[in-house]
Amino acid sequence: xxxxxxxxxxxxxxxxxxxxxxxxxxxxxxxxxxxxxxxxxxxxxxxxxxxxxxxxxxxxxxxxxxxxxxxxxxxxxxxxxxxxxxxxxxxxxxxxxxxxxxxxxxxxxxxxxxxxxxxxxxxxxxxxxxxxxxxxxxxxxxxxxxxxxxxxxxxxxxxxxxxxxxxxxxxxxxxxxxxxxxxxxxxxxxxxxxxxxxxxxxxxxxxxxxxxxxxxxxxxxxxxxxxxxxxxxxxxxxxxxxxxxxxxxxxxxxxxxxxxxxxxxxxxxxxxxxxxxxxxxxxxxxxxxxxxxxxxxxxxxxxxxxxxxxxxxxxxxxxxxxxxxxxxxxxxxxxxxxxxxxxxxxxxxxxxxxxxxxxxxxxxxxxxxxxxxxxxxxxxxxxxxxxxxxxxxxxxxxxxxxxxxxxxxxxxxxxxxxxxxxxxxxxxxxxxxxxxxxxxxxxxxxxxxxxxxxxxxxxxxxxxxxxxxxxxxxxxxxxxxxxxxxxxxxxxxxxxxxxxxxxxxxxxxxxxxxxxxxxxxxxxxxxxxxxxxxxxxxxxxxxxxxxxxxxxxxxxxxxxxxxxxxxxxxxxxxxxxxxxxxxxxxxxxxxxxxxxxxxxxxxxxxxxxxxxxxxxxxxxxxxxxxxxxxxxxxxxxxxxxxxxxxxxxxxxxxxxxxxxxxxxxxxxxxxxxxxxxxxxxxxxxxxxxxxxxxxxxxxxxxxxxxxxxxxxxxxxxxxxxxxxxxxxxxxxxxxxxxxxxxxxxxxxxxxxxxxxxxxxxxxxxxxxxxxxxxxxxxxxxxxxxxxxxxxxxxxxxxxxxxxxxxxxxxxxxxxxxxxxxxxxxxxxxxxxxxxxxx
Length: 838
Known about the structure:
Layout lengths: L1 H13 L13 E7 L7 E4 H5 L12 E4 L6 E4 L4 E4 L5 H5 L6 E8 L4 E10 L12 E7 L7 E3 L13 E6 L5 E7 L5 E7 L10 E10 L6 E11 L7 E2 L3 E7 L7 E4 L2 E2 L9 E5 L5 H6 E3 L5 E4 L10 E10 L6 E11 L7 E7 L3 E2 L7 E8 L9 E5 L5 E5 L4 E6 L10 E10 L6 E11 L7 E2 L3 E7 L7 E4 L2 E2 L9 E5 L3 E2 L2 E2 L4 E3 L5 E4 L10 E10 L6 E11 L7 E4 L7 E7 L7 E4 L1 E3 L9 E8 L5 E3 L5 E4 L10 E10 L6 E11 L18 H34 L15 E3 L13 E6 L10 E6 L4 E3 L13 E7 L10 E6 L5 E6 L6 E7 L1
Parallel strand pairs: 1-7, 8-14, 16-23, 25-31, 33-42, 44-51
Antiparallel strand pairs: 2-5, 3-6, 4-5, 6-7, 9-12, 10-13, 11-12, 13-14, 15-18, 17-21, 19-22, 20-21, 22-23, 24-26, 26-29, 27-30, 28-29, 30-31, 32-35, 34-40, 36-41, 37-38, 39-40, 41-42, 43-46, 45-49, 47-50, 48-49, 50-51, 52-55, 53-54, 56-59, 57-58
């Protein structure tokens, strides 16, 4: 029946889990659980207690950090429940401490949050009181007087509080009483008190049972058997100077250090007065490991390593016993207080680290969370933490023993890609102790650098007539960023060159910056142009820069000289006249040649290749002027043939020749062309205008002919005829060939004037042309008359009255006395169109 009640009491204690959640300052919560819970036992819903979203626990890297060596507790990230991971033994975790707390740090990232949790481990009555030995033997002289006390061996109970040792019980007997004394909450020991004198002759042995009982529910107990042997009398027992001694020692005192020398006296003599010192039965096992007692001298010395952090106070029970028969031991209590020494260096623990850090992270960005601990106390346990060296980081105290490592300045990966941050923790003890921890922080790249060309502008020289597709230059840009932020591709910015897109002239390799010509350049058409090249990286927000390439086309001698004066008239021969009376030095003609090239390639020099009489003329090599070397003689041929070569200064040189036939005449026109004047270069616009005017004039004449034919045909139908000439039409066309025999490209400018008829020149029309060709063809136009008002038209050659070639006027008098005038500035044979009425 008693066993059943006891089981029910144990179940009643273990079934409920005592929980209490207290919200404290600085984000601290507290739970209370009993020890010895099995794996998976519920502790608390820490997510709900902290007000966190359960769905974000994994994403925010929710975790707990325990100060204990073992991972006693874990969190289920799916529901936020804190549960027991390993069985907790309060006695192993906290020893004899009356309170036992398991400290947890709750770390949450993104953003960083920190909480503290205290798990109070409540004691369960899982240990019974126990005695060091199962049997105790006492020897008591029969002369012992009633009231004599005999200390008994103390029981040990690792439980605390009400579960620890509560009292002792002694089996009933007629000679002894039990006295339980309490020195402290955990220090209880029992003494036998002799109530009735002993008589060895009546009873030499007394057997008792001492029971130690704790205060748990249900209570537990332990027993020891006591055998009391009654001895003959030993009248005096040793006596200590004092019953309690107090000594103060520094922790880590060297082995063999004297703690105290105890002294006890015995009034007896001989063996009855010779005293032996030893630990009493009350001495704890740990005390026996740390201290020794010299049995002869009573010196107490250090045996082990004293650690203030393990136990600040040690209580030593020592007894003194003489060597006489029936000796009775005397007892004293030695209290050793341990003074703290600075023997523990601070410990730096990296709780959380975020790396790499973007180089554009603003100052104040949290990099790491650091905790610093020191097992010492007081000044020895006060720790200062700082960063070694000059770095763009700083430590900010968070709360209690925590620091946050944050950025203190802008970071630049291109300058420093990685930092080794040494955190030094130093306490204020004497001498101070320190420790350090190095944290490696990498800086990640951001596209904050635009590509940079090796030079802002490039100058490139390309010889004309280059091969299309050949590389003309290469540009290079660099970007100090990494990966895709440094991958560059080149392009040519859109531009116009002579009205055409620049992409038709050049191209660029987008990967290496090589520029290629897409066509063959002609210096005479294009002498230079600019290319704007852009280098752009492949960053998320791309950056770019530009460079200018100035391309200069170098001239080649690919154009020969072209003789523009004098112009050949028949085939490739130019005809000129010179007066026989011309003196030496007279300018006969000036040969002018132009070269489309530039520089030395366009520098033209002249040379007389062949002449009928070389001694008659001199040729200026630089100007091309042909002058008389002497006067014409009677024997000199009146016609001189000269072949002049114009040659440029290129490599290899190119040349052109012209044949000039000089005719000696007795007189020359009053107005002589100025041969020293350089002919104006013909522009394409002038050529187009001349062609357009000539084409319009030709269409006008064709229209007149067509109208005349139509009218003639109509008059025939009505019975009219053409009495003077057949019904036909004629148009005057001019043709002149150049040196190569091709038709001259410039059409004639023809002016047609119609005048009312008179008696001299009835109804005349005059056609005047500038620069008319030397050969003319006339096409007659016949109009069939209608009654008396019909007219006819005809063309006939007209010879001017004087021989002047330029600005000559031809005049004719019409039927009505009016004058029809025609002018020709170049042609020697102007013609007149007369319209006569039939």
